[in-house]
Design a protein that fits this description.
15 helices, alpha/beta, 22 strands, 2 domains, Aldehyde Dehydrogenase, Chain A, domain 1, 490 residues, Aldehyde Dehydrogenase, Chain A, domain 2
Length: 490
């Protein structure tokens, strides 16, 4: 079992603590690796290295930055299967999904590399004669990144690649449950030619290492993906320092099925949206809003399909659902199931911790019906394979129920009526809406993010990703040879 030190200034560096933690396979409970825990002093060293790295990297022409990112994409492609198998061991989701996770990192690297020859500003007219106006994008400086465990290489790549092409340096704390894929990604970037100090890794609990990153005065921006409560705290703390902060937080995503929907297509979409990644996606569909006219047929068929799903080690063939990430998450899911029963929802299938011949953290795919939109299980993010069925009688009621949550990330509607589809696009409060497709499946060239409690206005992926990690500077070039006073000389 390999032990990993901290990665600072291009070197594996001993932590100043003597503490470490184990990285554990959630399906088999085997120890995969041991990682040293950083102290606040180690975060300081990482920031010092990042400041040195920033000077070199920010002065590197963007197309040259892009060449390194594009080379890293090629190495990721070559090692895709190796990385996918490691991710299944570390995080638990099935091999098809981890291959997709790695592919997403490849895609964002290729896409972002293209931005190295764009990094568009704007040119515009001036209100005065002999004067030229434009905007340029400038790097922010040292960026702190704190990433979750459910997409161990895709989400770090979504943050790292745009930040790098924009010219920033990075201090990152990956999730303690899944640090290895971030380590592999950083090793690949270094192999591709990234200078020392441009990216630095520190490991350990959020209460120590995460706080040190958020509070460090030389870290000019924070990019965080995780829970709403932690996001609120980060935003509050960064506000005290007038620090840039971008947040990707929770979701309680609705999937609407109208009475004219293609039921076969809708059922496939629900099964994938609800139980893909064992429900451990911020975009998972946890609320199915189904029209009363088709509710009985839909429910019967959904339960039959759900009960055929096979749980087990994601490395094994024919496995549909892997483990949840850890004991704490398993207990949380069980707690919400009990709350659902107590509040009067009717359990149709699942609801139990199970042992599919393995000692890991497995929970049955679970479906509740007769769920009131205001019940706890219909309002709070469970982050597990628990699905709520809510019955409605019209599109208007479906949209009202869809919007009855503090979150607003992803949404979906299954309908053959174009009017219903466009009303859903217009009226549902979310950053993403799918028509006749699941709530999961974002592509890297479109912006990703949500409204309300899901985020604070920034978007990851797409052209907005570079802006997340850039300052916009307005430039005025006066070639009149005399003093001109905008607004006054009119």
């Amino acid at each position: 079992m390999q032990e990993y030190k901290l990665f600072i200034d291009g070197e594996w560096t001993e932590s100043s603590t003597e503490d470490s933690f184990d990285d554990i396979n959630p399906a088999t409970m085997e120890k995969i690796a041991s990682l040293q825990i950083a102290a606040i002093d180690d975060v300081d060293k990482a920031v010092e290295a990042a400041l040195r790295g920033f000077k070199i990297w920010s002065e590197t022409p963007p197309p040259k930055r892009a060449e390194i990112i594009f080379k890293a994409a090629g190495i990721l492609e070559e090692r895709k299967e190796e990385l996918a198998r490691l991710m299944t061991e570390e995080m638990g989701k099935v091999l098809d999904e981890t291959r997709g996770d790695v592919q997403e990192a490849i895609d964002i690297a290729v896409y972002t590399a293209g931005e190295g020859r764009r990094l568009f500003g704007e040119t515009t007219t001036s209100e005065l004669k002999d004067k030229f106006c434009m905007t340029v994008l400038r790097p922010i400086g040292v960026v702190g990144m704190i990433t979750p465990w459910n997409f161990p290489i895709a989400i770090p790549a979504w943050k790292i690649m745009p930040a790098l092409v924009a010219g920033n340096s990075i201090v990152m704390k990956p999730a303690s449950d899944t640090p290895l894929l971030t380590i592999k990604l950083v090793e690949i970037l270094m192999e591709a030619g990234l200078p020392p100090g441009v990216i630095n890794l520190v490991f350990g609990p959020g209460q120590i290492v995460g706080k040190a990153i958020v509070h460090h005065p030389e870290i000019k921006a924070i990019s965080f993906t995780g829970s709403l409560e932690t996001g609120k705290w980060i935003m509050s703390e960064c506000g005290k320092q007038m620090k840039r902060v971008s947040l990707e937080l929770g979701g309680k995503n609705p999937l609407i099925i109208m009475d004219d929907a293609d039921l076969d297509l809708a059922l496939e979409g629900v099964l994938w949206s609800a139980f893909g990644t064992t429900g451990q996606r911020c975009t998972a569909a946890s609320r199915i809003i189904v029209h009363e006219k088709i509710k009985d047929e839909f429910t019967q068929r959904l339960v039959e399909m759900t009960e055929k799903l096979k749980l087990g080690d994601g490395l094994m063939p024919d496995i549909d659902v892997g483990p949840v990430i850890n004991k704490s998450q398993l207990n949380k899911i069980q707690k919400y199931v009990e709350i659902g029963k107590q509040e009067g929802a009717r359990l149709l299938t699942g609801g139990n911790v199970v042992n599919p011949g393995l000692p890991g953290y497995f929970f049955e795919p679970t479906i509740f019906t007769d769920v009131d939109p205001d019940m706890t299980i219909a309002q709070e993010e469970i982050f597990g394979p628990v699905l709520c069925l809510i019955t409605v009688s019209s599109l208007e009621e479906a949209i009202e129920v869809a919007n009855n949550t503090r979150y607003g990330l992803s949404s979906s509607i299954y309908t053959k009526d174009i009017t219903s589809a466009f009303k859903a696009i217009e009226k549902i409060d979310s950053g993403i809406t799918y028509i006749n497709a699941p709530t999961i499946g974002a592509e890297v060239h479109l912006p990703f993010g949500g409204v309300k409690g899901t985020g604070n206005g920034f978007r990851e992926a797409g052209t907005d990703a570079v802006k997340e990690f850039s300052d916009i500077k307005a430039v005025y070039f006066d070639y009149s040879g005399k003093l001109q006073r905008a607004q006054i000389d009119q």
